[in-house]
Amino acid sequence: MLTQTFPQLLRWALASFSMVIGVMSLLALGLVGGYALGLTLALAAVMVAIVGVIGAGAMGASWSAIRVTQLARARWPVGRMARAPAGRERRGARAPGPGMSLNEKAEALGRADIFLGLPSPELEHVAFYAEERHAPAGAMLAVERQQGQDIYFILRGQVQLFTRSGLGEITVRVA
Predict the structure, then answer these.
(1) Those residues with Cβ within 8 angstroms of residue 19's Cβ, 6 or more apart along the chain or in another chain
(2) Residue 56 Cα distances to 65, 71, 144, 166, angstroms
(3) Which of 8, 34, 46, 85 is 20 to 30 A from 141 (CA-CA)?
(4) pLDDT in tens for each of the 175 residues of the chain?
(5) Strand pairing partners for 133?
(6) Contacts of 111 (CB under 8 A, 6+ apart)
(7) Are 44 and 23 spatial neighbours (Cβ–Cβ below 8 Å)?
(8) Which residues, in sequence order, are CB contacts of 166 under 8 Å at separation 6+?
């Protein structure tokens, strides 16, 4: 019998996910984050939308995401930078506008691997805390070694992750 609350289950799922991401040395499911339900759902599913990445939309120079914040206070390993790759924005590629309804957000989040099978009321609860964010090419999503507070689910575009190792900078492209 399931006796844990949704926030406890979500924290557990996010912690498990963050360990997988750490092993892969990638940002996380849209989980960019230090403190956050902070799934940077950018890699798990895109690797992750940033987390079980939402929608594999068109690969563009800019990106559009749903950011979830203040849902949980789970700690996430931080140590990477992510930004929209430099280049021209794609013309005609329409990112979801600021007018997404609660149901549309819940539907988009429901496509993320981490939320598959989650009942609609719980998805709507997560979607309630979600806000859309659009960024031009080159915009910074997170900075290495800074504590994150948000989880990003990439809806359209792509994100690049940069990290420094003893051998120099490593770049990972995330759709």
Answers:
(1) none
(2) 12, 24, 25, 32
(3) 8
(4) 344 455 555 555 555 554 444 433 333 333 333 333 333 333 333 333 333 333 223 333 345 566 665 444 333 333 343 444 444 333 333 344 456 888 898 998 898 888 888 898 888 988 888 888 888 888 887 777 777 777 788 888 888 777 777 777 666 666 5
(5) 65
(6) 49, 52, 54, 55
(7) no
(8) none
- Tell me how far the alpha carbon of residue 20 is from its chain's centroid: 15
CA 105 – CA 84 distance, rounded (Å) = 22
DSSP letter at 43 equals S
Instruction: Look up residue 47 and give its amino acid.
Output: M
**How many alpha carbons fall within 13 Å on the CB side of residue 23?**
6
Neighbours of 58 (CB within 10 A): 14
- pTM attached to this predicted model: 0.43
Cα–Cα distance, 171 to 150 (Å, whole number): 22
Instruction: Could you list the beta-strand ranges (E) of 5-158.
Output: 29-32, 41, 63-69, 81-83, 130-135, 140-142, 150-157
Query: First CA to last CA across the chain, in angstroms?
Result: 38
What are the beta bridge partners of residue 82? Answer: 142, 161
The answer to whether the Cα torsion of 44, 46, 49, 54 is positive or negative is: negative
